[in-house]
Design goal:
Structural class: mainly alpha
Largest sheet: none
Helix content: 55-70%
Shape: elongated
Distance between the termini: 86 Å
Oligomer: single chain
Number of strands: 0
Strand content: under 5%
Length: about 180
């Protein structure tokens, strides 16, 4: 009878020692969330240049394809007379100069570089915060919380390396294009 009781106690203890969060869904890491957001944003962004090229023909999915309507390729004969009659041409009809296009490209490059530098700053702070938490040896050294912090630190280091690479790539692009 004692052995049956002992087996029952051991079984109850073994069943009761399952970690409380073992069956709970795992929280996604920052890297996984960022990867999902990046996948959502994939695709070529439509630029003003693409919109200007739309007048030459084609479709939305193939902007420069042959087969566009003839009315978009050249203005109607009465439209030219209306402009001569005193109607001011719209600013969108005026083609941009090479300097204006270069300035727009440089502004877009600066914005991307600023965002990438901000990402590097944020990931550096996150790595420092996680490293500080790991350096605190007042808690258990081999607990699940520490393992999660180590994993988060490794992920933050990967994200920092990717952000640093992006900054270097953008800096090189700016150097090649002679942006200031």
């Amino acid at each position: 009878m004692r052995t049956l009781f002992a087996v029952g106690v051991v079984a109850a203890l073994a069943w009761g020692t399952v970690p409380a969060g073992a069956d709970a869904p795992r929280q996604p890491s920052l890297g996984e969330i960022a990867a999902r957001e990046k996948d959502k944003k994939k695709g070529k962004p439509i630029t003003e240049e693409d919109l200007r090229n739309r007048r030459r023909g084609g479709t939305v999915s193939q902007p420069n394809a042959e087969g566009g309507s003839a009315t978009t390729a050249s203005p109607a004969p009465g439209a030219a007379g209306d402009k001569k009659a005193g109607a001011a041409p719209a600013a969108a009809d005026k083609p941009k100069t090479e300097d204006e296009l270069r300035e727009e490209a440089q502004t877009a490059w600066r914005e991307k570089l600023t965002q990438a530098q901000s990402d590097v700053t944020n990931w550096t702070a996150e790595v420092a915060r996680l490293q500080t938490a790991l350096n605190d040896t007042s808690g258990p050294l081999y607990g699940p919380g520490r393992a999660a912090r180590v994993e988060a630190l490794e992920n933050a280091k990967r994200q920092l390396a990717a952000a640093t690479t992006t900054v270097e790539t953008l800096t090189e692009e700016g150097r090649r294009n002679r942006y200031r």
